[in-house]
Amino acid sequence: MKPLSIYSSRLIVLALLLTWPLLGSCQYLRYLRDLNPTMPGTKPISQEPFDALLKKYVDEQGMVNYRAFRADSSKLNAYLTTVSNTLPNEQWSQNDQLAYWLNAYNAFTIQRVLRGYPVKSIRQLGGDKTLVNTVWDQRFIRLDKEKYSLNDLEQRLIRRKFNEYRVHFALVCAAMSCPKLRREAYVGSRLNQQLEDQARDFINDPAKNKLAPANAPQVSEIFNFYPGDFKKGDNTIQKTLNKYSAGPKVAADAPLKYLTYNWALNEQK
């Protein structure tokens, strides 16, 4: 999950606007616009092909056997061809739509890693200019007849269309500090339960969140990447932590210290 809040992205875009002649590209301007590609007449696709691949190549810790997965990549490519050719529309339920996009993001991320494998970090597959040439800005994702990037899916579509902070516990950008990759595909009929499971698993993972002592918790940098997503209405990051914590609770006004994000590949050893 590339760290990019709506607020920080606007500041970055402003800075880029001032320097775009030097960069020779203004593709970052697309992040100011929402994205909602649709295709009339489609029905929710079967997630069974992706589900079977996740069960085969992802372990209980959410680690991926990329080496073996690469040998079976034709099945992933076939699934993603169906994704590319069967976009959702407003006749789909909101849960079916969101499940489709969560699976698409995770599956296209896996595909991108497999295309560059072996690699120690997904960040090595792109440049270092945020919104311009990182791996998350590469437009390799075909949806109908257009090409999009992982940032397009996350920043312009999922975060803006669904107003659901739990997506940050489900989107996996192939890094150790990301949420665990779920060993099953998301499906509309069980999506709420699946997102609740992801939230509990992520927040109670001591490698990602240390909630004690109550007045000095150390939490995932994901909460720092997207603070506004967790602060809508009367919600706060602290309330989110306490809602899902199975152990220590943090103080309502506890200052948050963010753990350094580990971008090493989430690969089985």
Automatic annotation (TrEMBL):
Coiled coil: none
DUF547 domain residues: 90-203
Pfam families: DUF547
Protein name per Swiss-Prot or TrEMBL: DUF547 domain-containing protein
